[in-house]
Write the structure tokens for this entry.
Amino acid sequence: MKGFVYLVGAGPGDPGLLTLKGKEALEKAEAVIYDYLVHTDLLAYAPEGAILEWMGKQGHGVQRSQDDITARVIELAEQGLRVVRLKGGDPTIFGRMGEEALAITEAGIPVEIIPGVTAASGAAAYAGIPLTHRDYAPCVTFVTGHRRKDGGLAPNIDWEALGKAGGTLAIYMGIKHLGEVADKLVSAGRSPETPIVVVHRATWPEQKVLEATLSTVAERVKDAAIPPPSLVIVGEVAKARSHLGWFEKSPLKGKQILVTRAASQARELCHLLQERGAMPIELPLIELKPYGHKSGTEATLRKIFAYDWVVFSSYNAVKFTFERLEEMGLDSRVFGAARVCAVGPKTAAALEKQGIRPDMIPEKYIAESMVEAFEEVGGLKGAAVLIPRAREAREVVPEGLEKMGARVDILPIYENVMPEPHPLALAVVKGGKIDVVTLASPSAAINYAELLKKEGLPVDMAPCAVIGPATQSKAEELGLPVVAVAEKYTVEGMVLALESYLANE
């Protein structure tokens, strides 16, 4: 039985521009063939175990021919697999959709075409330029500046007609022959002073925008050494950029930020950074694993209802507690009448997903505030308290509650271990290319300092942004230069503190 092929437009770069239908196709894919222009974050939507193959082409440094790519898609589909051919931009606009779809259907394989945000739309929006304007740009023309066989300027395009037509001109793959294109447009009647914008790596954190005119663009592009992929927008609409350019205004734009969170938890922080134009570099310095003797842990969890309070000082404590309960065939009903304290909103949200609304959330999301919150309600004299937590953790909460007269049991439910660093991310660190390091826990600070020592790197090689005072204290104790501390002890708060630091740098 033959499979099925989805030709999916991934958009110009920003993973958030993938359509919902494109996401749905990826979620049921058994094989994904993707281009170099596709953001690899999108591959996370594919099911575990799916075949993921990079088959892209970069300019004229061809890695695989078009025929080879199509043949591979057909080969996988003929094995009965659901195949997603993930293409940058929109497959119907200079995306060779016609060639690929025809070959696939001729092989007797059903195909569905899912459009994406084309490069012209993405480049215009992220550069702050409208492609059309009712006062001076009633039309827009998409044109290629690249010939298929030898890479020369496409010969079958009437540049004279385009020069006379007016409106906006969006030129794909035209950076190599931009001087020739500009000359042809001027010769056809466009003013040499016509505004032109070149957008390199549109919608990516490293997006660069060059503004020029038809008379100056060739020299400006040469001086700036702008390579492909770049999209060119010609016309009066380019003037709007001075008022509408929004993407470059973030202080995080273009900054390389090291994300040290566990791989399973890094996505949220990475997305927050990407939304602000930063380039997150993932180097997980923490790996979270279940911990505890099975029989002892299960015995404690089975009698959790016997405690007066259960105190969760982290999201991870909730996660691993309920994973263990699920393995035991139990759920939130085992809590009985026990009251629950959560350190902050993320921990509370994790509990609410399990059907538990916390009885207490401190005003500040740190261990010290948890102790203060119990003091404010009259203490815990004689109360039985269970604290599921990491194997190694600060003793602020158990010691503080014991001083109030509580009987505290600690249940180590998970542990932090340091994984092997990814060689590519480590190379970026060793190359001194990191602008800021983010640390979301004291454990991350410890492991980062150990990594620097192991690699023979100076402890102060990059400034650090931290999630709260406990992490700040540990980082500074280790000699790490802390420049930004979250006022609200969440990853969002850490990003806001980082923005404030960079804006005032």
Residues 18 and 183 are 36 Å apart (CA to CA). The chain has 18 helices and 20 strands.
